[in-house]
Automatic annotation (TrEMBL), chains A, B:
Protein name (record): T-box domain-containing protein
GO biological processes: cell fate specification; positive regulation of DNA-templated transcription
UniProt keyword list: DNA-binding, Nucleus, Transcription, Transcription regulation
Record's subcellular location: Nucleus
Domain T-box, residue spans: 47-206
Native species: Caenorhabditis tropicalis
Predominant localisation class: nucleus
Gene Ontology CC, one term: nucleus
Pfam families: T-box
Classification via InterPro entries: p53-like_TF_DNA-bd_sf, T-box_DNA-bd, T-box_sf, TF_T-box, TF_T-box_CS
DNA sequence: TATTTGTCACCTAGGTGCGAATAT
DNA sequence: ATATTCGCACCTAGGTGACAAATA
């Protein structure tokens, strides 16, 4: 394709094999666009408060769930790097049921033990971070907190909360989805954030 | 410029004299893009709760301002139409000082009267609606409320609140700014939303 | 017995008007 | 006098753990 590099007219541009699209101004040069072309970089996601998460994890993290929806404690919060500052992303969280077993808390042993097979799992609902969609620069600027996310054990929930089976074990997954039409998805999870959903705290030793 | 209309490769396109940009998928046809090309349409902004605003207006609307910032009552809220659903916009509000006079409230006459020349006005700060930037479809979906906006009389305010001179008359202006690089700005205001900034209510007859 | 549910008092954050005290 | 500042009591919305009652 031929391009008049000096053109300053109002245009939309098509670059072959580019992966990023820009909002362009009336006045721009082809060179300024090419200069902004994305270099591949590795997306990284770091868990915040990992110290706290690990303390709970060592005791067996429990997460209260209620019919009306309960926030998580600790709150899931991550630092993201390696995004394209100009590109739009949607960031979501879902819960992966990581063992198809039912658990119960043994007061004797002060620990969780698995008992029999668990409920079969439907794919988890997605919690879409309310800032979505936003540019990479926004997501990387500060930790991204999922404190508004709520868990429920109500299979018929109509408030958009994340549905779980009580006494089952889950681990949150963070998804970073590129909004360039490719919908490329990058998924991250952290071992220390796994938890067992409960309707009342079992371990009273926190 | 030559374009292979059947191409399905990953590209960025160049259209001359287009005004709208799209996030494109890997697979698309030139025709599908052209079909989405914007038709010019008129942006309109309608005041919400205009009945309430008019009731206050007929008595002389007062708006409390404090050092730490005070929300407006009534809240400014507008319905927007005529945007391009796919285009990004920033929506802001500022305050226009509509009479360079100082006012005082006459208890005798139960009305505001002007007294002498007012303070000279610096250009007002902008309140950027927190949803900005967002697509036209978002702004048009529901009334856009500026309830988080706060007014202050502290000329040294460092919280980003809108600074006003007490006992002066203002009228909010809504700006809809196209985020296509042209930064085209559409401005709207409503007579019935004019008010006098006060540090304490003067008219006790509300 | 093991689990779930609903209720409740408690806490917090933040917005509000009012009136006393102060400032111009 | 007029205008501003400040503190305060009040209200609301929403999140929390505890516990008693209900469920299975």
């Amino acid at each position: 394709m031929e391009i008049d590099k000096s053109s300053k007219r109002r245009l939309i541009i098509l670059c072959i094999d580019c992966e990023l699209l820009f909002v362009m101004s009336n006045n721009f040069s082809i060179d300024s666009i090419l200069a902004k072309r994305p270099r591949k970089s590795l997306i990284r996601v770091f868990l915040q408060s990992s110290h706290l998460w690990r303390r709970f994890h060592s005791l067996g993290t429990e997460m209260i769930v209620t019919k009306s929806g309960r926030r998580m404690f600790p709150t899931l919060s991550v630092l993201i790097s390696g995004l394209d500052p100009m590109k739009n992303y949607v960031v979501t969280v879902d819960l992966e049921c990581i063992e198809l077993k039912r658990f119960r808390y043994s007061f004797h042993q002060s620990k969780w033990i698995s008992t029999g097979p668990g409920e079969s799992e439907l794919p988890s609902r997605m919690f879409v971070h309310p800032d979505s969609p936003a540019r990479g620069s926004h997501w990387m600027r500060a930790p991204v907190s999922f404190d508004k996310m709520k868990l429920t054990n109500n299979q018929l929930d109509s408030n958009g909360h994340i549905i779980v089976n009580s006494m089952h074990k889950y681990r949150p997954r963070v998804h970073v989805i590129e909004q360039d039409g490719s919908q490329t998805r990058h998924t991250f999870s952290f071992e220390e954030t796994e938890f067992i959903a409960v309707t009342a705290y079992q371990n009273h030793r926190y």
